[in-house]
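Ligand: LLP. Inputs:
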Amino acid sequence: MRPERTTRDRLRRREDAWDGAGQDPSNVTTTMHDFKVRNGQLYCERVAVDRIADAIGTPVYVYSRHTLIDHFQKLRRAFHRMRPLICFSVKANGSLAILKMLVSQGAGLDIVSGGELYKARRAGCPANRIVYASVGKSRDEIREALRAGIFCFNVESLPELDAINEEAVRLRTKAPVALRINPDVEAHTHRYITTGTAESKFGIQLEQAERLISARGSAFGSTRLLGFHLHIGSQITRSAPFIQAIRRVGNLISRLRKRGIAIEWLNLGGGLGIVYKDERPQTAQAFAEAVVPHLLPLKVKLILEPGRFIVGNAGILVTQVLYRKETPGKRFLVVDAGMSDLIRPALYGAYHEVVPVISDKRQGTSDKRQAYDVVGPICESADVLAKDRRLPALGEGERLAIFGAGAYGFVMASNYNGRRRPAEVLVRGSRWFLIRHRETLNDLVRHETVPSGLLT
Ligand code: LLP
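Predicted complex:
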């Protein structure tokens, strides 16, 4: 029998035995995610990650269904007193299988383009659970969303409000809108993902919104004002900035109501942080306990738009070592995933934990750890997935998992350097499913034309 066979058989036996074998399955539901090393093997739920990589190749994104549904439900339970509409933010992970699963759990979707509207519809999301933000909605996109009958446009400027109004008049309909307020609060996160300060391009200044509503009331022609939208940034680990934003918009709501203007909805946006390294983000429960007392007196219906919180820790990127390269000054593991697959480290200097897929000594992996930079094959100095990580001396073909890759991972992938975007797999218990094929070489040229007039 070939040695790989023996290994696979052994893994299979382990997976089958896992439910009972000294593990408390209830642990899994209370922890942050379902990626665990057991007996030297990395598992996603009850499937050995190595087995998926054997079958699909690398790089491959692997998601845990249980983790993301658990996160969705945790948020819903934490806010149960307000019965919010939870609109998963499609930009964090737009894979249809994931959208469909969340929609079937009762989620709505937060979209930012006509493309995401299309995906939301393909995922079977009822239109009345779709909210649409973006500083640059085109006329075509506005018309498409009006025709679909989405729940609400989150309006980011006065010219946009006029455009939505004009299109609604043309289509003889009423456009439901919320004004996205820029509350000018500091979210204490990376500057690239801070969206609620005065100098950012997002939202409408509070005073400007107040002047507008005072002048026009809550019905601006063919638009109907449902309420306000906030989204102050992403990967926010504390509740204070949210509370500050709620207070500011809450004062506005009270002033408007005194003038007889009805405000029914408040959308608090997304932004809840997760653990990548040593952050101590609030749990859904702690977040709800901190903000709900500020929301209840406003007597509004609530929308939440989480992305990262639901899916961030529900996905890993699995890659394989091509070369171990040592120079006088540095040790590198050159792997087959790069910034074209996961751009967060290159773009934000983001930290993602790196874990060997097999750390079992019997697999020939030495226990001696040394500091390596894990780098991709792309011709850019920024193509570093992880810096100075203590890892075993992995050799060609051995695999690594990059954690926390479920949000803003695949969705930000590109074809740079002629790379095919990776496959995606979803694990449910002891089964796994391919939810996206790896791109083919033909995909790289699919939309190109070489007109003969150019060649002669
Ligand atoms: N709602 C709106 C209007 C947003 O702009 C965003 C994210 C969300 C909700 C979801 O935010 P979350 O819950 O995921 O924090 N590419 C960056 C993150 C960009 C976030 C953009 N807006 C990253 O990889 O960290």
